[in-house]
Every structure is written in structure tokens, then in C-alpha cells.
Amino acid sequence: xxxxxxxxxxxxxxxxxxxxxxxxxxxxxxxxxxxxxxxxxxxxxxxxxxxxxxxxxxxxxxxxxxxxxxxxxxxxxxxxxxxxxxxxxxxxxxxxxxxxxxxxxxxxxxxxxxxxxxxxxxxxxxxxxxxxxxxxxxxxxxx
Length: 143
Hints:
Helices cover 24% and strands 41% of the residues.
């Protein structure tokens, strides 16, 4: 992506998009694949996310805190995205290709509160963390 406040990375995973989407649509499992180590566990979430669903997570980015997220994109087996109060958006796009799925994770923090990310220096580790997330997703869905 062009903006310094949008980070994106992709990975081929050798399973059908539906398998990956099922993992992403279960907020209770997000801590199992989070490559940043900031998602501790879910506080409250429906069994399966849907457009407009809200879920809350205990987090740690230096200090412990919790956040309430809202699902803003939900296209079965194709795309899912959510954001919290500061409108930072986490998005996963799934593209079926021969032999599996290309998964793209995008973090968009091009919002007025972006200074929180840059001051915490998370902007410098986002790409590494996102690559670790996609690796963990692959490990979970191919195990």
C-alpha cells in the first residue's frame, strides 16, 4: 500500500478460503493466531461474527487494556474487517487460487488517532507481526 499508515502483507495458504474464514469469523480464536502478542483473550463475542457484530478483547500494548470492535466488512469466505473506537481497521481478504488461498491482511491506521501507533512504535513492527499472524493462521488451518 502507498500510505505509511496502511500496512499490508499476503501469504498463500494451501486450504480452501472457507477454512480460513471460519477461523477469522470466530473472535474467540483470535488470540491463537495473533502474531503481535497484543491480543490476550476475548471478553465477549458471538460464536460467529457477522456484519455489525461487536466483540471485546483484552489486549496488551505495553499496558493492559480492552477494546470493543465492530465488524464492518463481512463477505463469507472472501473478506472480513473490524475496527474499534479509533477506527483503526484490521482486514483479511481471501482469494481462492489453485491449491489454496491467497490471504491478505491489512491494517489501516490512517486516522486522527494514528499518533498512538507511531508513539508506541507499533508502526515499525506491524509488518513483522502481520507476517507472523499469517504464518500462525496457516499452522492452525493445516494442522
